Predict the 3D structure of the following.
Amino acid sequence: MLFLMPARVLAGAREKLAALAPSGLVLVMDEKGNELVAQNADKPFVPASVAKIVTAWLAMEVLGADYRFKTHFYLDDDRLLYIRGGGDPFLISEELAQLAPALVTAIGKQPLSGIVLDASYYPSDIRIPGIEGTGEAYNALNSALAVNFNTIHAVRKGKTVRSAEEQTPITPLAVSQFLTRGTQGRGRISLTQSPTVGLEYAGELIAAFIERAGGSVKGKISTGAVPKGLEPVYVHRQSRPLSEILAGLLLGSNNYIANQVFLEIGGHRLGGPVSLEKSLQVANEMLVRHGLTGSIHLEEGSGISRGNRFTTRGLAQLLHLFEPHATLLQSGDDARFKTGSFSGVRTLAGYADTSKHGRVRFVIALTNNDGAMRFRLLKAIQSEL
C-alpha cells in the first residue's frame, strides 16, 4: 500500500491536469529529476518571454552577478565631448541624474562646444528577429547608446507635450516625435525609425542633465567616432549590478533590456562590436555543453521571436541549472516563476512548493489566449502533488 499510494496520487494529478488543459504541454520534475507529470512533453513550443530565463542564465554564467555596464566620456582640446556607448540597458533618467554631476566635476563647468555620440559598439544595421517597426515600446531598437529604453514617455494635450515623468526633462526631439506619433493623453512611444533618432534623443537628454548639474552645452549634437588616442576623462559604471538588472528584467519582461543583455554576452566573450551571431554562438556553445542544443533553440534573447523553440524537458533541465539564481524570478503563492504571452501562446515556468513532493520545477505551455489557465494548472500541481 505504501508503494501504491504515491502512484495513485500521481495518476490523480495527471488526470486533473489533463482535464483542465488536455492539449497543454505540462512537465513537472522533483528535485531529484524524476518526472512527476509529463503531458505532451515532447512537443516543441514557442516560449515567448519565458525565453528570458535562458538569457538570464547565460548572462549570469558569462558576465557574472556583479557585472556593470560602462559608458565612456572623452573631452578634446576644443571642449568637444565624445560619448561612447557600451550598451547599458539601464541608462535611464535616474542614472543620468547620478552620472551628470560626476561628469561635470571631471570636465568642468566651462561651456562644451558640442557633443559627439559614438555608438559604434553596435552595428547601425543590427536587427532583432521579431522586433517590428512600430511605435510600441516593446519594439524599441537596441543600441549601444540609448536612454530610457529608447522610448519617450510623455503627455500630449493638443499641441502641447510635457514629460510624463518628473525625473525626465522634455527635449525638442521628444516634443516633435510625440506630436508626430503620440496620441492625445499619456503614452510611451519607441524610437524605431532609425538608430540616429534614438541617438539624437540620448544626446539631448544627456545635455539637459549636464546643464542641470551646472554644466553648459553651446554647440550641436552629432554622431561620430572617438578620435584615436583620446583618453576618457570619465567612465560611468552602471549603478545597478547585473543581478539587479536581471531581477527587473524577469519581473517587468522588457524586451529591449533582454536583448541588450543578450548582445553583451557575445560582445564580452568574443569582443566588440556586438552582433546577434556572436551571442548566438556563445549561447549555443553553452547549450551544447549541457546537452541542450536540440531542446532549446534561440533566435534572440527576449522571446519576441516566434522562431524560438523549446521543449519542456529542455527548459526543465535549464531550470535546474538556473536554480542557484531562482530568487531573481518573480515570487508569489509559494512559487518563483516567469510568464510568457503571445497571440495564441501562454507559457509559465519556474519553481513551486508542493504539498507532497517539496519543491518542483514546472513548465506549462498553452496554445491559446487563456492566461489564467496557466495559474490554475500551477495551483493544481501544488495541491495535487
Q: What stands out?
A: Residues 195-212 form the longest helix (18 residues). The chain has ten helices and 16 strands.
